[in-house]
Amino acid sequence: MLDGLKNSLGDAIRKIVKSSGIDEELIKELSKDVQRALLTSDVNVRLVLEITKNLEERALNETPPPGLSRKDHIVKILYDELSKLLGNESDFEFKAGKQNKIILLGIQGSGKTTVASKLAKFLTRQGYKVGVVGADTYRPGALVQLKTMCEKSSVEVYGEENNKDSPSIVKNGLKHFAGQPLDVILIDTAGRHKEEVDLLEEMQRINKVAEPDLALLVIDGTIGQQCFNQAEAFHKTIPVGGIIVTKLDSSAKGGGALAASAATGAQIMYIGTGERIDDLEKFAPTRFVGKLLGMGDVQAVLDLAKRLEDEGDDVRMKRISSGKMNMEDFLSQLEDVTKMGSLQGLLDSMPGLSGMVKGDQVDQMEGRVSKWRYIIQSMNKEEKADPDTFLKNSSRIKRIARGSGWPESEVKELVKNYKNSKNMMKASKGRQMQGTLRKMGLG
Question: Any bridge partners for residue 201, and if so which?
């Protein structure tokens, strides 16, 4: 997904991560690298300048919050500014007890008909009962294609093959579905160019007949900066409430489509990531930007860092940061990390660590974490509080192994990693984000 943009931004971030120190010259260099990356991906020039101006000002003037290094804070600022461009995670709230009507808009070739069938299946999987009205009378075979694709998810499509009046088809379709227990009715309209006045007028008539609860603009992720003008033109005709970006699986210039939200004030709700009917997913800006930066969901790591920092005055954190961590502390750190999600996501979130650990290695690590939890829970209170009392006691290791259901070698492996983690935590004072791995004994 947007590999060109991802690689360019990744290269820019690596300069920061690998630098020996942060100064004004390095920050300005980062700003120029980000500008090149975004402009190459066809993000609107005005938006690029706004993002990089904010990046420079914040990186030069803001003091990193407790628990974050200056390098991590600069990466977080870039993450914030890109996320701001895309808005917050957005979803349409379907009203119960009525048929919620959604109209799909977009130029010819944007993939509206395909999106209609994908969205129908997506909503069906969520438990909604869906019907579709095929009102694209301009493209030959549009209705047949729509019916064929929707059959796969057992969704009924209403259309009139010989009727060329789209507003009347919509009116008849809504009347056809009126008595059925449907939650959502999707209306597929004809593709049109933003300057084709007659088609824009037809769209207004369809809108008047349908009185939709939501208008979704379908944008082709490969067309670059044209997206901005298209979105603006459609929004002036029918207020756009959400955006679906298609073809993000193959485009190196998807940045233009991502900026379409700025032209409408609407949020991107869904993205198409492939040709299959299942290749539609809800859009999560923070995760998306994290992937672009090659770091997974950065916010999850920062939330963890904040939780750890919030506990900075606790006895436990004082023990950890002074290198006096016990097994209960170690288990607590494991639990904090696993609350974030998978270990792969954690590793991908770490600046400089993304892609360094293979999938099978991650699986082994996650399995090890699960084992360690059982082993620690099999220790008595004394052993958890002062692990050094049993580190060399073979009888205790045998008893803990029996209690946990894992061999003695696993207990010894835990002890080894616990000691490594304890020493590293003492050296790092527990304050860097990269220390999260060390807290887990995986550093």
Answer: none
- Separation CA 305–CA 259 (nearest Å): 31
Evaluate whether 78 touches 185 at the Cβ level (below 8 Å): no
Domains of the chain: 3-86 (1.20.120.140), 100-284 (3.40.50.300), 295-439 (1.10.260.30)
The β-bridge partners of 100 are: 184
Place of tokens 């991650």: 362
- Classify burial at 229, counting beta carbons within 10 Å of its beta carbon; exposed 0-12, middle 13-18, buried 19 or more: middle
How far apart CA 346 and CA 305 sit, in angstroms, is: 12
Q: Which amino acid is at 10?
A: G
Residue 193 φ/ψ, nearest 5 degrees: -90, 145
Quote the DSSP letter at residue 92: -
Alpha carbon distance 336, 320 (integer Å):
14
The number of residues making up the chain comes to 443
User: What are the strands, taking DSSP E only, across 65-165?
Assistant: 100-105, 130-135, 156-158
- Mapped onto helix, strand or coil, the DSSP state of residue 254 is coil
Q: What angle do CA 268, 247, 343 make, to 5 degrees?
A: 70
DSSP for 223-237, written as a single string? STTHHHHHHHHHHHH
What is this structure's pTM?
A: 0.59
User: Per residue in 303-336, pLDDT tens?
Assistant: 555 554 554 445 666 666 666 778 877 777 665 5
Q: At what angle do helices 408-428 and 359-377 cross, to 10 degrees?
A: 100
Paired with 243 in beta bridges are: 217, 268
